[in-house]
Automatic annotation (TrEMBL):
<keyword id="KW-0784">Thiamine biosynthesis</keyword>
<feature type="binding site">
    <location>
        <position position="175"/>
    </location>
    <ligand>
        <name>substrate</name>
    </ligand>
</feature>
<dbReference type="InterPro" id="IPR036188">
    <property type="entry name" value="FAD/NAD-bd_sf"/>
</dbReference>
<keyword id="KW-0963">Cytoplasm</keyword>
<dbReference type="InterPro" id="IPR027495">
    <property type="entry name" value="Sti35"/>
</dbReference>
<keyword id="KW-0808">Transferase</keyword>
<keyword id="KW-0479">Metal-binding</keyword>
<keyword id="KW-0520">NAD</keyword>
<comment type="similarity">
    <text>Belongs to the THI4 family.</text>
</comment>
<dbReference type="GO" id="GO:0160205">
    <property type="term" value="F:cysteine-dependent adenosine diphosphate thiazole synthase activity"/>
</dbReference>
<feature type="modified residue" description="2,3-didehydroalanine (Cys)">
    <location>
        <position position="209"/>
    </location>
</feature>
<protein>
    <recommendedName>
        <fullName>Thiamine thiazole synthase</fullName>
        <ecNumber>2.4.2.60</ecNumber>
    </recommendedName>
</protein>
<feature type="binding site">
    <location>
        <position position="211"/>
    </location>
    <ligand>
        <name>substrate</name>
    </ligand>
</feature>
<comment type="function">
    <text>Involved in biosynthesis of the thiamine precursor thiazole. Catalyzes the conversion of NAD and glycine to adenosine diphosphate 5-(2-hydroxyethyl)-4-methylthiazole-2-carboxylic acid (ADT), an adenylated thiazole intermediate. The reaction includes an iron-dependent sulfide transfer from a conserved cysteine residue of the protein to a thiazole intermediate. The enzyme can only undergo a single turnover, which suggests it is a suicide enzyme. May have additional roles in adaptation to various stress conditions and in DNA damage tolerance.</text>
</comment>
<feature type="binding site">
    <location>
        <begin position="288"/>
        <end position="290"/>
    </location>
    <ligand>
        <name>substrate</name>
    </ligand>
</feature>
<dbReference type="Pfam" id="PF01946">
    <property type="entry name" value="Thi4"/>
</dbReference>
<feature type="binding site">
    <location>
        <position position="110"/>
    </location>
    <ligand>
        <name>substrate</name>
    </ligand>
</feature>
Amino acid sequence: MSTTTTTAVANGSAVYPVKANGMNGHKASPNDAEVLEDYTGNYKFAPIHEAEVSRAMVKRYFTQMYERAVSDVVIVGAGSAGLSCAYHLAKSRPDLKITIIEASVAPGGGAWLGGQLMTAMVVRKPADRFLTEIGVPFEDEGAFVVVKHAALFTSTILSRVLAMPNVVMMNATAVEDLIVRTDFEGKQRVSGVVTNWTLVSLNHDTQSCMDPNVIVAPCVISATGHDGPMGAFSAKRLVSTGLLAELGNMRGLDMNRAEPAIVNGTREVVPGLVMCGMELSEHDGSNRMGPTFGAMMASGVKAAHEAMRLLDEAKVVEGKVISKVAAA
Ligand code: 48N
């Protein structure tokens, strides 16, 4: 039973306990007369005041938005690369405030299915070790393994990432620009992201001036993929801001070239911005691999290592890199 002293307030036919000092707080646990887990036609829920639902969501969402206005790492894109990166980074550095921004309502990117809408997911060795680490079963086919349904990987990595206390995910939210500043070395440095509700981002030409919001961070990891309405977002924005001369443009399918190229090419492409996953194929002009996903997992892990290196080398104050850490 809750020990909170509450003042019962009559409201229509029901009585809703509220905290004496304002916002509806934690209600006393319902007594047995109020709830009944009955499947014979008499199931009863604890009574609720509709405003409690709103306040439960608003309080949490906007508190986390306030707190994550300055993050340690922002990951753009919750596809297989972005989620693998978030998992490895959050596990390796539980002290970091990691904020994932995902444009779709449903995170997971292109990893809900294998190829041509078929359900099995192929992962080439040694990336099967990542599956073992997060607890995804697979069938061993020798040089590669097969997860019986791609959604088994994606739902597992999502649940692992969202269970991490230092990770916040804001889905249905788009990064619609990058914060770029001249840093202490006179270089153009990515220093955070510019965000908006995705439905707003997709409708800027229907209304005048729906200004965005910002999240400041010393490290941004872009994993926005190569297709979809916002694919390769950061790579394209680097070109339009003059930080990249031109897109490399993804080359044709070659599994044996593509997967090592993406993993080994995962890096800090401009100061403050690490790029991973298939977005890198558009940035670098590397081949595509088609329906094998091991490179996304390994690229995500490498991006996590790149982010940790970047942060270890940087002196950061209020989310801004103000100098390099003196070499030990
Ligand atoms: O799954 P994707 O598209 O990207 P990756 O790199 O995580 O995985 C790519 C992989 O699924 C393949 O494409 C496979 C291996 N096929 C290869 C081939 O040859 O065809 O996830 C990117 C995520 C998506 O969920 C997008 O919604 C999101 O990024 N996103 C954004 N989120 C926020 N702001 C944005 N501007 C943005 N753009 C994309």
